[in-house]
Write a structure and sequence with these properties.
Helices cover 51% and strands 23% of the residues. The chain is of the alpha+beta class.
């Protein structure tokens, strides 16, 4: 009985093994055929995952990025020690070709998160140069896969990544966003990167100490570029960000309900995308209100400034008018809401820059003032 059962089972087992071998062989062929695309796949996977899941308002996400930063540093250290022959363990060497892919996934996730965070944080016209710099690094990370074994290249990317992370993580911890926290972020990032470089090239540095300058000079150059961006006010003030804002002809706070009532006009009732007085139809005695909602982390205290500016077509420049301010506190997911207003106004192009006390632009609201009645427009009343 058992013999007959075995005679029936054995051919099935053999057939199963043959099929498994065929599938394994085909799988290896597919892997080799598309192997050159895997770095891009890993990069895009990291970018897509973090773009959909990470949020500057979520404290848990900050620690995810911290974990990414720590693991990425560990991967660079591992790759560097493998390339310099300091690690010869067979089990570690077995997966050597996967380490650059893992590192690329981590860097792709970090850079994508930075693009999302910094893009959302400030007026794009002010942060565009820095965001473009981030995008360039993302492209380098994607298309220069052969450089993923170049330790100097990796350490330069890692220094920038650590620097960019600390520029918003350190203020979250200290509840301060100023020049001291910015340069402290750069110094800490440089020390961490220098530590990794020292461990990887310790024998080379021991034999020829002058070599250290060639290894650390690229991060120093990046430090200089970041410092220039900061002094030029091109780096957005993350973790602060403007969640909402607009120009209205009426704004009122409702303390009992914890809401704000705003009123604006639409020239067509179904024009749902027109949600503020982008074209302000002004008449004598009117008041122009600028409303904004600013996100800040929990327990954060700061002052925001509304810098009203008018464009002078003759001189082709923006002239400062009023600079109004109020204190905000953090913790509300939708941001701390408030407004300023201006009564003495005239026709022309206007804008209001929402700024920190150090002049970093959180958001920019542009509008035109025209002298005409708004009787032919539909008044919309909204609650915020």
């Amino acid at each position: 009985m058992l013999r007959k059962a075995k005679e029936k089972i054995d051919p099935l087992v053999s057939e199963g093994k043959e099929r498994l071998e065929v599938y394994t062989t085909k799988g290896k062929e597919v892997y080799k055929r598309y192997e050159k695309f895997y770095p891009v796949i890993f990069f895009l996977a990291g970018f897509l995952y973090d773009s959909l899941t990470l949020n500057i308002e979520n404290t848990f996400d900050h620690f995810i990025l911290l974990l990414y930063t720590i693991v990425a540093g560990g991967m660079i250290l591992l790759i560097g020690m493998l390339e310099t022959g300091q690690i010869t363990h067979e089990k570690i060497l077995r997966y050597k070709k996967w380490y650059p892919n893992i590192l690329q996934f981590l860097l792709g996730g970090l850079f994508s998160a930075y693009v999302v965070f910094y893009f959302k944080s400030a007026a794009i016209s002010k942060s565009l140069i820095f965001v473009c710099f981030l995008l360039i690094l993302m492209v380098l990370n994607e298309f220069f896969h052969h450089k993923m074994l170049n330790i100097t290249f990796l350490c330069t990317l890692y220094f920038f990544s650590t620097f960019a992370f600390l520029t918003f993580f350190l203020p979250i911890i200290t509840h301060k966003l100023n020049t001291a926290t910015f340069f402290s972020s750069g110094i800490i990032g440089f020390l961490i990167t220098s530590g990794i470089v020292t461990v990887i090239y310790r024998q080379i540095f021991k034999d020829n100490p002058k070599e250290i300058f060639g290894k650390v000079s690229p991060p120093i150059i990046v430090f200089g570029i970041m410092s220039f961006f900061y002094m030029a006010n091109w780096i957005p003030p993350v973790p602060l960000s403007m969640k909402d804002g607009g120009i209205y002809h009426f704004v009122k706070k409702n303390p009992s309900e914890g809401t704000y009532t705003v009123k604006y006009y639409r020239d067509w009732f179904l024009k749902f995308w027109d949600n503020s007085d982008n074209v302000y139809h002004w008449a004598s005695g009117d008041t122009v209100f600028c409303y904004a909602s600013i996100f800040a982390p929990i327990d954060w205290e700061a002052t925001v400034y509304y810098q009203w500016r008018k464009y002078d077509p003759g001189q082709e420049k923006w002239n400062d008018r009023d600079r109004l301010s109020y204190a905000i506190s953090g913790g509300r997911k939708g941001g701390y809401r408030g407004f300023t207003y201006k009564r003495n106004i005239d026709e022309g192009e206007w804008r209001v820059d929402i700024e920190t006390e150090y002049g970093q632009v959180l958001g920019r609201i542009e509008f035109d003032v025209v002298a005409s009645e708004a009787a032919d427009r539909k008044e919309i009343i909204a609650t915020k």
